[in-house]
Amino acid sequence: MRLDTMEKMKTLMKSVLIFVAILVVAAGVIVGGMHFLGISISMDNILGKKQRQAPVVNDMSFRAAREEQEKMLRQQYGEDWDKPLTQKNAEPEVREYKFKKPVLALDSGYSIKDPGMASVRGKREVEYNDRFVSELVPKIEAAGWEVKLVRGEHEYISDKHRAAQANIWEADLLLSIHHDVAPAKFLKEETVDGVTTLVNTSGKSFEGFSMYVSKQNKKYRQSLCFAQRLGFRLKPMQHNPAYFHKEHEGMEMVVKEYAIYESDIPLLYQSEIPAVQLKLGVITDTKDESWLNDGAYRDEMAKAIAKTIRAFKQYCQ
């Protein structure tokens, strides 16, 4: 009887051990599968124990780090870095880009020290030159060019130094404003409006505009291009170009249609930029001087010059 009981107990124990072994194997299989699927589980969760608390971060070090981060954000995005975007701060920054304007070196011929010939009214050429230059400047500026005056109103400067000044500025164009006179052999002393002066009384036509360029100029092609385009605008305005310098003074004419002459004056050939001398008309001719003394006529000439300068870089570079 006792032997039977012992056998039964052994059988029961074996069954319990086998059952426990099966449970252990099953648990291992389940945990392995959860790890394979990316699911983690701890014994604390299984047993329902209280979770461990995360370590407490030092409040002062956290605050210092936060303040440093805010400082960096403020430097990068401004004081409104943490504010919601509004119409004002949502718009991208608009920057104004300033492009370099082309530069005109504008020369007024002669000076107070060397005023040039007198007109039929007894005024010296420098007065006509300065008056026209003062009227021309705002029109050139309105055309988008910067104007630098080679000679101030009461300054004296030689032709050589006028060219040097324009070279120093690295201007895009040098334009010298002058007025013309008839050949000396055709001038006689005469009193006009109580002023004694030299006037053309020969009966010959000594009137009109003319221009001068130098083949020795490094930018001769651009100089000639500007002179031709300017002549195209000036010729239809009032009178013919001045052809008499070739006939009576033997000057070389480069372009007859617009009375463009070759000249060896230092202003033109020592210039390292395109350079043109423009003579607006003959102040020793009564008819021509009357036109040059008319404000509306001068205004039209100034507009024609400004338009030609505005298109210079487009057509003559």
Describe this structure in words.
There is one protein chain. The chain has a domain at 103-315: Aminopeptidase, CATH 3.40.630.40. It has twelve helices and nine strands. The strands form two sheets. A seven-stranded mixed β-sheet has the order 2-1-3-9-6-8-7, with helices on both faces. A two-stranded antiparallel ribbon has the order 4-5. By secondary structure, it is α/β, with parallel strands linked by helices. It is rod-shaped and about 165 Å long. The N and C termini lie far apart (130 Å). The relative contact order is 0.12. The protein has helices spanning 2-36, 43-47, 59-77, 87-90, 125-142, 159-169, 220-234, 244-249, 266-269, 286-292, 295-310, 312-315, and strands at 103-108, 146-149, 173-180, 187-192, 195-200, 210-213, 253-255, 260-262, 275-282.
